[in-house]
Design brief:
Chain lengths: 177, 114
Amino acid sequence: MVLRQTDDLGRLILRVALRDRRAFERIYAATSPRLFAVTLKIARDPSEAEDILHEAYVRIWHRAASYAPESGSAMGWLVTQTRNLAIDIVRAEPRAVGDPGPTHVGAAENGLNGGTERELIERCLASLDEDKARALRDAYILGWSYKDLADRHRTPINTMRTWLRGSLVALKRCLET
Amino acid sequence: MTPVPLNPADADELLAAEYALGVLSDQERARASLRVAAEPDFAERVTVWQDRLAPLAERITPVTPPRRVKEMVDLTLFRELPPRLHISRWLWRGVLVATVSALALALLFLLPGA
């Protein structure tokens, strides 16, 4: 099934808030490959990614009433619920010393249907230095903290913080113009 | 790069961005999430940033999850077992099929003139 309009997805979430199970089935069918991709990137292994995805949909069912259509896209809301959960779970685990962790996000990796919002943010990222754009992308997609980023980019943590803050300010300015 | 002193609104804006991005340390993250729960203005900034960054996830190639994930979701939310575990339903169907067959056979033999 393909949901072309983000509005459709938003309406389905509102129906889930009213405990409409059929709407929930449709959301799962339409979004689970996207959300699984999100958890696979952040989790340590595929089985943990499955557990997080399971919990994410349970959370989506319970929190659907907190979704506000006027404050952002429906897919964005689903991604955010999933990503926050994934980061909280992964951060709560003891980290193995010398764990190489996930690799950088491949530059060639491409999702389907590049929407206008995605084109816009990619264009804004392209206006940053390559290293800085990559740090921001790694942070978002792999769920890396300042510490992870500093370790992997071999940069002091405060330098990384200054870098990333500068990138966030530039990104905001770019997206707003 | 020389750090520029921030006014409180700028500092909140950056903290909201860092929280949405997920780069804060565990302690900073926990503190920020308390603020999200308690301060609607701050929560709104975080929501705007989450929405701003979410298109980045579209870059990841979708992967269809195994069926067992959905089965676990149904089990958790609706106390529903996956179809292959509906033993009683299959048992019941088996009994029904056996009964109907037996009846049909019996009729075949008992019909006058068979």
